[in-house]
Design a protein that fits this description.
With 329 residues, the chain is an alpha/beta fold. The chain is 40% helix and 15% strand. The strands form 2 sheets. It has a 6-stranded mixed β-sheet. Strands 5-4-3-6 form a 4-stranded parallel β-sheet, with helices on both faces. Helix 2 packs across helix 3 (78-90) and helix 9 packs across helix 10. It is globular and about 60 Å long. Bound molecules: pyridoxal-5'-phosphate (PLP). Pyridoxal-5'-phosphate binds next to helix 3, strand 7 and helix 7.
Length: 329
């Protein structure tokens, strides 16, 4: 087996990110003792979870001598914004293939994409080519022009990208020892599976004793993705580590009305955390996961006496692209 530390990584983040208690938020909810892992503060262009994955992915891009990085996502993709920022850090060009009709307004992540000088290719969801195919076609064109593209799939959720969350799991285990806190649960949003796969693998590798619980931001079966990423991790580490269906905790009750569209309860959750602790979560992932977490406390899934760590995976920049002022009473 390879040592985890032998996997090449470049530094793009400020880690370990802090773990902070949420006393006022916990008191209002009257359930478990809640803490937050500040991965919104990973330090790369307004932060978020993708920065951790990009440390491994761009190390590979550099090793392969690539000069342009391509990735895909929604118009307000945090992953695309952080990929653009990471490309700047290593002197590569970034091309972002984003799904949407057309760009009506440059706001939130989209505005930052342009500030970071990324080239944006918009792919119509009703058009002839899928977003993924459009991305690979673009990569082929670049090769014909003599460039060396590096393609990062959705959310950077490959075995290599997930190494970033193995590293995060180790951080959580080390911090929990240093703080003298035993977390019963680590709760986080899911968008493409890399975060959960990395946390699960990291928990196994470094012997964490918390349960990992993911709340989906999209109506997509993430279990096959997570199992696949688990296999890729095992290959990369030359290890017999394996993620089993029984390891996976996924909840699908809170992604509505649909991916990317803020729900009423998500906005209520965003307000509650902002107004008790001064922390901003995003409307697409963290707000919905937080809304689910709150509801599941009320339903008894997370109980008084337990300690829960909520992973703030970022996403606040999307708030500037959302018309939610009328709901902020
Ligand atoms: C991408 C993203 C997630 C989901 O992480 P995955 O590893 O893709 O499951 C969660 N929160 C935010 C803010 C994200 O941008």
């Amino acid at each position: 087996m390879k040592q985890f530390d032998q996997i090449p990584r470049i530094s793009l983040t400020i880690t370990p990110t802090p773990i902070e208690p949420l006393p006022r938020f916990s008191e209002v909810l009257g359930g478990p003792e809640i803490y937050i892992k500040r991965d919104d503060n990973t330090g790369l262009a307004l932060g978020g979870n993708k920065a951790r994955k990009l440390e491994y992915l761009l190390a590979e891009a550099i090793a392969q001598g690539c000069d342009v990085v391509l990735t895909e996502g929604g118009l307000q993709s945090n992953h695309a914004r952080m990929t653009a920022a990471a490309a700047c850090r290593v002197g590569m060009k970034a091309i972002l293939v984003l799904k949407g009709k057309e760009i009506e307004e440059y706001q939130g992540n989209l505005l930052l994409d342009r500030l970071l000088d990324a080239e944006i290719v918009v792919v119509d969801p009703d058009g002839p080519l899928s977003r993924r195919d459009a991305m690979y076609q673009k990569a082929e064109e670049l090769k014909e022009q003599g460039m060396k593209p590096y393609v990062i799939p959705t959310g950077g959720s490959t075995g290599l990208g997930a190494m970033g969350y193995i590293r995060c799991a180790k951080e959580i285990i080390d911090q929990s020892k240093a703080l003298g806190i035993n977390f019963d649960w680590v709760v986080h949003p899911i968008g493409s599976g890399g975060t959960q796969a990395g946390l699960l693998a990291g928990k196994k590798l470094f012997e964490g004793n918390f349960e990992i619980f993911g709340i989906a931001a999209d109506n997509e079966d993430f279990e096959p993705e997570i199992l696949q990423i688990g296999k890729e991790i095992a290959l990369l580490l030359e290890s017999n580590l394996s993620i089993e269906p029984a390891d996976i905790n996924l909840n699908y009750d809170y992604f509505g009305p649909e991916y990317g569209v803020p729900s009423e309860i998500a906005i209520e959750a965003m307000k509650l955390l902002a107004r008790t602790e001064g922390i901003i979560v995003g409307p697409v992932y963290t707000g919905k996961a937080l809304a689910g977490f709150i509801d599941l406390i009320n339903k008894g899934q997370f109980k008084a006496g337990e300690k829960v760590l909520f992973v703030h995976t970022g996403g606040a920049p999307a708030v500037f692209a959302m018309d939610i002022i009328d709901q902020l009473e």
